[in-house]
Amino acid sequence: MIRKLFLILTYLTFSITCLHAQKTGNATYYSHRLHGHRTSDGGRYHKDSLTCAHRTYPLGTLLKVKNPKNGKTVVVRVTDRGPYSRRFMIDLSYRAAKELDIVSNGYALVEISETDSIEIPNRPPKEVIKTCFEPAIIEPEPVSLIKKRNK
Fold it and tell me: Is the pTM of this model over 0.90?
């Protein structure tokens, strides 16, 4: 009984550490020579866009990438497959690497997490924003308003 419990705890420990290990790894960035080339999702790579290449995440997934050395984060979209080297976990676009301060070293250790939404700083709440597409409130009988004013 004790042996089974020990095996279960060992299995859980290794599975949890393996899951965490997949979220942390080295990141590098695309070369300038790839600017304009096609990516796996059919679009073209642009060096100033916030995109990345990852082996396992589905195309179109939003990933939050954090550089633990300086605490900077960036949200990128998976548009390509790669990197094809086992040393690296993710290939970032040039702009994303620049915002994380990876460009000077060529690569850096990063933490990757999946995100569903993007938070835009200094943006007013959604309720405050008024647009011209909101429906107007119309009284069922406009004539009744005129009669009320005249009285």
Answer: no
